[in-house]
């Protein structure tokens, strides 16, 4: 861990093999979690795995030395959006119905197309891997230059000052949007619960 003269931590740097291995491991975690989100039948488990995917994306940002983006990913997506989704699931969740799985020709075609897209995506990553490694090395060189010249590069402090000065109003509006969404979910859940209680059981 290297620290600039201003006391700002510029980031933790690993050797290229370790960084590549961590990148592949975290990417595998993202793919596994994403598959669990769409394949699991219990929606609460899908919501929890979605939070795991968001956390893995934050780890990718850390590997790219984007410390502020990683912190924003944790605070906004994991700490706000995913928690809001889990609240909505718990508010409107009902007993899971018995689902009889039957594959249709359209579903099989869609599954084949999705697998083909995954293969193409993997091949594109392998093809672009030398570019990614060069980007990692260039990013480390830039941070090393910023450390020796005392220049803030990708500084979380600089971005934080901008958010709380020039961008204060949009930053606060984001919290209002999340609050409105939470109140809306509670309102919809209460209306459905009230309508179910008013139904005559004899009918």
Automatic annotation (TrEMBL):
<keyword id="KW-0793">Thylakoid</keyword>
<feature type="transmembrane region" description="Helical">
    <location>
        <begin position="113"/>
        <end position="132"/>
    </location>
</feature>
<dbReference type="GO" id="GO:0008137">
    <property type="term" value="F:NADH dehydrogenase (ubiquinone) activity"/>
</dbReference>
<feature type="transmembrane region" description="Helical">
    <location>
        <begin position="70"/>
        <end position="92"/>
    </location>
</feature>
<dbReference type="GO" id="GO:0009535">
    <property type="term" value="C:chloroplast thylakoid membrane"/>
</dbReference>
<dbReference type="InterPro" id="IPR001457">
    <property type="entry name" value="NADH_UbQ/plastoQ_OxRdtase_su6"/>
</dbReference>
<dbReference type="Pfam" id="PF00499">
    <property type="entry name" value="Oxidored_q3"/>
</dbReference>
<keyword id="KW-0520">NAD</keyword>
<feature type="transmembrane region" description="Helical">
    <location>
        <begin position="167"/>
        <end position="189"/>
    </location>
</feature>
<comment type="function">
    <text>NDH shuttles electrons from NAD(P)H:plastoquinone, via FMN and iron-sulfur (Fe-S) centers, to quinones in the photosynthetic chain and possibly in a chloroplast respiratory chain. The immediate electron acceptor for the enzyme in this species is believed to be plastoquinone. Couples the redox reaction to proton translocation, and thus conserves the redox energy in a proton gradient.</text>
</comment>
<comment type="subunit">
    <text>NDH is composed of at least 16 different subunits, 5 of which are encoded in the nucleus.</text>
</comment>
<keyword id="KW-0472">Membrane</keyword>
<keyword id="KW-1133">Transmembrane helix</keyword>
<dbReference type="GO" id="GO:0048038">
    <property type="term" value="F:quinone binding"/>
</dbReference>
<protein>
    <recommendedName>
        <fullName>NAD(P)H-quinone oxidoreductase subunit 6, chloroplastic</fullName>
        <ecNumber>7.1.1.-</ecNumber>
    </recommendedName>
</protein>
<feature type="transmembrane region" description="Helical">
    <location>
        <begin position="47"/>
        <end position="64"/>
    </location>
</feature>
<keyword id="KW-0812">Transmembrane</keyword>
<dbReference type="InterPro" id="IPR042106">
    <property type="entry name" value="Nuo/plastoQ_OxRdtase_6_NuoJ"/>
</dbReference>
<keyword id="KW-0874">Quinone</keyword>
<keyword id="KW-0934">Plastid</keyword>
<keyword id="KW-0618">Plastoquinone</keyword>
<comment type="similarity">
    <text>Belongs to the complex I subunit 6 family.</text>
</comment>
<keyword id="KW-0521">NADP</keyword>
<keyword id="KW-0150">Chloroplast</keyword>
<feature type="transmembrane region" description="Helical">
    <location>
        <begin position="20"/>
        <end position="40"/>
    </location>
</feature>
